[in-house]
Amino acid sequence: MTIIAPSILSADFMNLGPELKNFDNESNLWIHLDVMDGHFVPNLTFGATVLKNIKKYTNHPLDAHFMVRNPEDFIEPFKNIGTHNFTFHWEAVTHHDSLISKVKNNFDSCGISLNPSTPVEVIPTYLLEKIDLILIMSVNPGFGGQKFIEGSVDKVKQLADIRSKKGLKFQIQVDGGVNQQTAQTLRGAGANNLVAGSFIFGESSDKYSAQIQKLR
Ligand code: DX5
Ligand code: ZN
Fold first, then answer.
1. Does the beta carbon of 47 sit less than 6 angstroms from any atom of ligand 1?
2. 168 C-beta neighbours (distance < 10 Å), count
């Protein structure tokens, strides 16, 4: 089943505990945490200090998406809040292989994210064999509620093709502008993990489950 990862960027920050409780009865769900540093992207969100009690409010795996210039600095603090998946941006890093090893030593899952303008080909096969997830950004990272970039679908197809030809297991996650229509296209293209912010949190909390169901 497709994993759905609600992005708390669009949640009510002043009410985050109860917002998370709304997902208690869902399965195959990750909580997507958008960490932005105001440098890699023109927006600033939260770090581990703000999220340190997040595990009290959810049992779902925490999925951290680092839109930061120095992702390595976030290993220690996010390990301490019990993060499941650690995704860093390919564009922010020089020594990818070494960072993947450090992430794998500290987290269950390591992801690499590609900006819309970064082609799939930048990641060599030997690294695809090491990682657990590729995140295809389908908007320019930084903000929720943006329009889906159609070219992302081809990148998902390309990755799904490589994955099946080489017998690899990494998840294909897509983030940005995911709604009922784009989700259907993305699932058809081979994505199995969809991040959604405004599509879920744009509705009243009694509709979150229904929105998740539509994405699946
Ligand atoms: C954007 C973030 C996304 C964002 C998606 O840079 O990485 O996770 O919350 O929001 P929507 O689903 O509204 O496009
Ligand atoms: Zn994200």
1. no
2. 15
Other C-beta atoms within 10 Å of 160: how many? 16
Give the phi and the psi of residue 100 in degrees, each rounded to 5: -60, -45
In contact, 44 and 37? CB cutoff 8 Å: yes
Domains of the chain, earliest start first:
3-215 (3.20.20.70)
pLDDT in the model for residue 183: 98
Find the 45 Cα to ligand 2 centroid distance in Å: 11
What rounded mean pLDDT belongs to the chain? 98
Q: Which residues contact 213 (CB under 8 A, 6 or more apart)?
A: none
Residue 206: its pLDDT value, please? 98
The per-residue pLDDT for range 166-187, each reduced to its tens digit, is 999 999 999 999 999 999 999 9
CA of residue 194 to ligand 2 center, whole Å: 10
Cα 68 to Cα 58, 74, 102, 170: the distances in Å are 25, 9, 17, 23
Atom of ligand 1 nearest to the CA of 65: 7
